Write the structure tokens for this entry.
Amino acid sequence: MATITDQGTAKVGAQVGRSVPRLEGRDKVTGRAEYTHTMRLSGMLHVKLFRSTVAHGRIKSVDTSAAKKLPGVAHVVTIEDVRKVIPDPYYGPAFHDQPILADGKVRFVGEPVAAVLAADPHVAEQAAQLIVAEYEELPAVYDEVEALTSKVHVHDVLKPAGTFADLKHLKDAKGTNLALDYRLRRGDVDKAFASAAHVFEHEFRTQKVLHLSFEPHATIADYKDSGVTLHTASQGPSFVRTEIARLLGWPENKVRIKVPYLGSGYGSKLYIKLEALALALSMIARLPVKVALTMEEMFYQITKHPSTFRIKSGVDKDGKIIARKCEVYWNGGAYADIGPRVTQKSGLTASGPYDIDNVWIDSYALYTNMTPAGALRGFGVPQLVWAYESHTDMIARALKIDAVEFRRKNLLREGRPHPTGTVLKDAAIEKVLDRLVERINWKQPMDRGTGVVRRGRGLGIAIKAVISPTTSVAIVNVSADGSVALYCGTIDMGQGSDTAMAQMVGEVLNMPAESVRVVQRDTDVTPYDMGTLGSRSLFHMGHAVRRAAEDAQEKLKALACEVGEPEGSNIPIPALFVKKYGMQAGNVIGTGIYKPDYVPPAPGTGLSSNVTPFWMISGAGAEVEVDTETGHIKIAKLISVLDIGKSINPKIVETQISGAALMQLGFTMFEKMHLDGGQVTNASLADYKIPGFHDVPTAMENLTVDVTQSNGPFGAKGVGEVSTFCVSPAIANAIDDAVGVRLMELPLNPESVLRALRVKAGKPLGDE
Amino acid sequence: MIPFELAEPKSLTEAIKLLAPDDAMVRPIAGGTALMLMMKAGVFHPTRLVSLGKIEKKYSGIAAGKDGLRIGAMTTLSALEQSLDMKKLAPVITRTLRTLSNVRVRNVATVGGALAHADPHMDLPPVLIALGASMSIAGPSGERELAVEDLFTGYYETVLQKNELIAEVRVPSQDGTRAAYMKVTTGSADDWPALGVAVALQSDGNAVKSARVVVSAATSKAMRLPGAEAALAGQRIDDKILARAGEAAANEADFIADVRGSVSYKRELLRVYIGRAVRAALESGAH
Amino acid sequence: MTARTIHFTLNGAPVTADIKPHHNLVELLQTHFGLTGARESCGQGLCGCCTVLVDGRAVSGCLFLAVRIDGTEVVTIEGLDAGGKLNPMQEAFVETGAFQCGYCTPGFILMANQLLDAHPDPDDDQIRHYLSGNLCRCAAYPQIIDAVKLAAKKRKTIAA
Ligand SMILES: Cc1cc2nc3c(=O)[nH]c(=O)nc-3n(C[C@H](O)[C@H](O)[C@H](O)COP(=O)(O)OP(=O)(O)OC[C@H]3O[C@@H](n4cnc5c(N)ncnc54)[C@H](O)[C@@H]3O)c2cc1C
Ligand code: FES
Ligand code: FES
């Protein structure tokens, strides 16, 4: 695989802009990095969960007697036992809708119904197999479009958490599966459609896929009446602390959340996952308790949202899009998790990076009887881009306009209002498109082949707003020997944030990033951060870290002044402390807080003059080869072009771009959770396949454009998700270019391609 | 995994004695790669496993003779992959092993396990059937000879009695055979196949005298396709003949739908891949 | 079920452990020796996160019964940086940034060393082929190829 990389960034300073090798590299290559999944505390009990086998049902009985009798079993716990220690055992970030163990009802296959605790995990496993449950099965709803009008209701009453203002109206709502409806109304779409020269309407769907981080979910809770400590694989320890404190009715200072390295997350370890259960079990056992999932069990924890997107565009005679109507249905599964936020935050960019006067967006978060869905590398945006960039290509094709020309005609340009009303700034959409067109040789003719194998190329561009408004806090601690430690809550789950943050500290304090220590995440020590999600950290925490370092710098200057150093003195820091305290003693503590300005979308219209502090922009181009006899697709080339502002660490940026693009390649080509009556039929790595070495495109280009994010820390902004956005439509567009068939549903697997080819040839394949 | 007893006999005969003719919860374990998966998934709860790890060394070696190769059942797939005798006799096996699972599994998994497990997605059975391989089966009352093509009765099912063991696999001489195996995946490149096709041809240039054609993965067991074989035998290969053989194969195989493809799709794949496999065999050069 | 005592060499040192027939190699290393570099992810022999060398051959610890370790020589990732000096492959992984979360990294490093033992100067195709039985969900594949090539160079320089 040939890889071209070109960051196109000038060095900002000695630390920022340099490809510093990851600070934690040594721990990772020697196998000594610590992860929650392999941690042990002495006296700890292991847990095996007994899970529901029905998708929707009332629990008639749970017989745990045989399990309890098995020698070595410490406890067998159901919701009744949990209620004795936590009277209101419901949790969740947007809704308090998820019970710690199934409570009266089960809502998806795989939902935990009982937990067995034992010192020996094999005993727990054996005992869990002895539990027997009886259910009165209820009709279930799986499809997101059906869920909107279905008579089957996953929850009897909705219970919004109160954290989010736009969910308040749903409190105590009955008889609905709708967990949020976000709307955007700009101009008058109906009038525009009536006057349009052409109207196009399509429906696109995405499948259920999951994060499958290689370290499965794991939490160890160690409860004492004086306080509780949780070691957990979490992307958001601050939120976990708040939620655990709420469940206990305790002040936050009695709850301590510690997070070692994460064997990645991609959104799966956000908000609260196993922590509430581990807490309850530790309270019951009065011992440390570890809940650690197997890879198979991750299929029952959290997934990406399947979606249906109905998109309709009106185009005038000159090829200008004058109206776009978007109806997006998000399949949220049995518990809301962060689905309502996905629905709103991605919903607002559903009309794409285009300048359209009349826009109508309805975005629905829906409950269904499946594994809950949450954020997965893109917070819903990849699902949207899949639809709008396929749709855009289809329009260009139908109007016989070159796909790039058509996009150019309609691009949202700097200084123009996005459909939300927020004026576009620092969003290099056009530059990204230019670079893409150049790298994919768009203007040169392509040899499309004549035999069994046909070739084609395609591209797509996208926009995303960051989750807003969110807060980050950082502390920079200068010790008397001049060494520096950074305390920040951003979780380095592989994206390299520790290294990037250390670079920013080093830049301000003029010292090598390698010498800055980033303290392990521990809520007793590291200050508040909203969470490591949505590519927000480099921007938000980056600013907080920069401010903390600047604050420390100011304080060092003040100290120098105080001890009588002349203005501009470059006295070494250790000497400064000695001068002040007479020996190597004392600290200088710098703090920084960052929360961007934000105007919430107006209810009803979704409009806002400041909906995001920065825009994420990306494009992807693909060249494919299609085997017309079998439908197999080979990706000959995959190009990603991103606007990430300035690059803090070009090497890490490159791995983020290629890693995210390859992950999305899996979601595009073959990853799919197969479901039969709510039961996942391929819940293991043997049957749920992810990209391996042989699935990497023959050539990959991971590029950025040379721009600056003017309000970003050192000109930078986030990158973690950005190259996922356009991979799916770029490939679907390339397939259409090669063989003239259009796929409307992911994944683009060989069978779907062959079926489409056969339909086109008038010889459709049978349904067997 | 749930606890069980492990016996480690020192001889094949002793191992057979430790097996129980009527107890499905007692089983032999060789490399353990397939059994461990089943035990971890909770689909198999043995009370006792009889390890073949310590039986006579002769069951883990490859011996070349005039009439072909004798491969001990405990030979690891890595040893088979690296065997120069094997490569000389039937390079198609060496090639097949390259994409069979991964280095770690091949270092541990055995030839006996690769046959007895009887998962229809496995790669060796179709190739061995195409090459006309046979086995020596040892039981309480001695050894018997069985063709690999007669081993499988269905999905994960064989004719083996619960107290019988595969002792040895024999691959006959392959003078003039041209063979190929095609593993067709529809998920990631390293997925289990949606279809496996093995062909072994006796041919003179493009003119096929006789053919053995085997399908796997798309069906409940690896099996020969006599219709396709007949369509190829005595023919000079061209697109028309291949289409006819593909058609015959598509009509005679009994497909199973799963997450890797529907019946209709697998039928199409087989139709196409019969031709591709025959061409690959012809291009591979004689053994 | 009956426990038994096994004796083996672990990263060069003779050790013993009391285990049961149903314990696997990953558990043995983690619970008895506190070594967590081999870790279970897929649990099915597919990802390679649990890679351990037994008598010089790579195996998936998740599918390997611990009893089979009796009398063997076992090397884990923790045995590679003897005396605090990184192995050339480890250095190469750090220098090329061939990982993100690092969960799969020990397995890749052990396998990649096996590859270089067999093919000291591998091309892209050999690397891809040999390592195709290891998976990385962070998809650091392009950088892993760079790392293996760099390590091959480093090994040659050391040998010269
Ligand atoms: C990650 C992974 C990937 C794989 N990929 C592939 C692949 O791509 N292609 C492929 O073909 N296979 C693949 N396999 C399957 C692999 O080939 C089998 O697991 C292996 O061959 C079984 O051999 P074993 O010695 O480990 O058998 P064991 O697990 O020990 O036994 C398997 C079965 O055979 C029985 N048995 C073993 N030896 C004998 C004997 N001598 N006589 C009678 N019965 C016996 C056992 O009782 C058991 O029922 C894969 C396996 C794994 C774990
Ligand atoms: S955990 Fe053993 S190979 Fe994946
Ligand atoms: S680095 Fe995360 S799985 Fe490989």
